[in-house]
Design brief:
Strand content: over 45%
Distance between the termini: 24 Å
Structural class: mainly beta
Radius of gyration: 14 Å
Protein name: RET7 protein
Organism: Podarcis lilfordi (Lilford's wall lizard)
Keywords: Transport
GO molecular function, one term: lipid binding
InterPro entries: Calycin, Fatty_acid-bd, ILBP, Lipocln_cytosolic_FA-bd_dom
Largest sheet: 10 strands, antiparallel
Bound molecules: 1,3-dihydroxypropan-2-yl hexadecanoate
Shape: globular
Helix content: 10-25%
Length: about 130
């Protein structure tokens, strides 16, 4: 049985989100707003099919994918760069590789206890976020 990410998750802590946003080239004014946000993630998972809807008072971002199937990602409302993305299982973690202009871009999600973890990577920056069930 693979991990079950289904549910609604609220951000409770964040580390080095600023460094990640700088690496992505997000402007100062947008970073100031973005780092105050407490986004919520709604995961819908049916086997290997996922949607992750990240919502906040400022912006919303929806990504839908099937494990192992490459897709075009537009990152609209984030850095607006397009990339080719693919998500795979690594044990009970889901690991996304986002191939495009930015080196070493991607993210990993996993569950530990009752918490959802997210590691965001871009170039030499890593941000870690923790979410709790709503
Ligand atoms: C953009 C960069 C903040 C900052 C400005 C907008 C949508 C894994 C994955 C789903 C992400 C999180 C993206 C963070 C990009 C910050 C608006 C924040 C709320 O999540 O769950 O694609 O990539």
């Amino acid at each position: 049985m693979p991990a079950d990410f289904n549910g609604t998750w609220n951000l409770v802590s964040s580390e080095n989100f600023e460094g990640y946003m700088v690496a992505l080239g997000i402007d100062f004014a947008t970073r100031k707003i973005a780092k105050m946000l407490k986004p919520q993630k709604v995961f819908k998972q049916d086997g290997d099919s996922f949607s992750i809807n990240t919502t906040s008072t400022f912006r919303t971002y929806l990504v839908e994918f099937t494990i192992g199937e490459e897709f075009e990602e537009d990152n609209k409302g984030l850095d607006n760069r397009k990339c080719k993305s693919v998500v795979n299982w690594d044990g009970d973690k889901i690991v996304c590789v986002q191939t495009g202009e930015k080196k070493n871009r991607g993210w990993t999600h996993w569950i530990e206890g009752d918490d959802l973890y997210l590691e965001l990577r871009c170039e030499d920056q890593v941000s870690r976020q923790v979410f709790k069930r709503a």
